[in-house]
Description:
By secondary structure, the protein is an all-alpha fold. The protein has helices spanning 2-10, 14-42.
Amino acid sequence: MEEACTRSIIGLSEREVKLTEKAEEVIRYLESRIKTVEKEYRSL
């Protein structure tokens, strides 16, 4: 409950929080893919 109040104070709805978490997951995935591709490219 307290967390929900904090979120509403900073203006984030439950949906926005979920989208933000998903976006962070996607960013982490892309960063790891970029590192993998860079390693593969260097080993050519």
